């Protein structure tokens, strides 16, 4: 049977670099914990822009009706136009503001904060 030679004494073995293995391998790798680049929810941003515009128009019309700049035959219908305008304007403004801040890269804002309806 051949004899073993010392590995540490060999010139070839001194050029080999070893790294210590992790004591416990739980099956995870670092790559799976990397965050992928954010997906921009274009449909949700477009919906927010439409809500913002419709809400703005309804608020302006409601304000003009309320002040009497536009003549109405039933003045009791001016307040609901203003209320509906505010209810439509607020979510549109909120989501557009988040989209703008995420686009500008402000800390604490991301596209993940905008609900995406593609699911």
Automatic annotation (TrEMBL):
It is found in: Cytoplasmic vesicle, Autophagosome; Cytoplasmic vesicle, Secretory vesicle, Synaptic vesicle; Early endosome; Golgi apparatus, trans-Golgi network. The chain crosses the membrane at residues 44-66, 78-96. Its main location: cytoplasm. It is a multi-pass membrane protein. The keyword Transmembrane applies. Keywords: Cytoplasmic vesicle, Endosome, Golgi apparatus, Membrane, Synapse, Transmembrane, Transmembrane helix. GO terms for cellular component: autophagosome; early endosome; Golgi apparatus; late endosome; membrane; recycling endosome; synaptic vesicle. One of its GO terms (biological process) is synaptic vesicle transport. Belongs to the TMEM134/TMEM230 family. Involved in trafficking and recycling of synaptic vesicles. This is Transmembrane protein 230. The lineage of its organism: Eukaryota, Metazoa, Chordata, Craniata, Vertebrata.
């Amino acid at each position: 049977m051949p004899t073993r030679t010392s590995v540490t004494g060999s010139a070839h073995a001194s050029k080999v670099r070893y790294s210590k293995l992790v004591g416990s391998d739980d099956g995870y790798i670092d790559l799976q914990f990397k965050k992928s680049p954010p997906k921009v929810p274009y449909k949700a941003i477009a919906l927010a822009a439409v809500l913002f515009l419709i809400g703005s128009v309804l608020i302006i019309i409601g304000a003009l009706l309320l002040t009497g700049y536009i003549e109405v035959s039933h003045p009791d219908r001016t307040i609901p136009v203003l209320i509906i305008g505010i209810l439509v304007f607020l979510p549109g403004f909120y989501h557009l503001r988040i989209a703008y801040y995420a686009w500008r890269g402000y800390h604490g804002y991301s596209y993940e904060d905008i609900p995406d309806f593609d699911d």
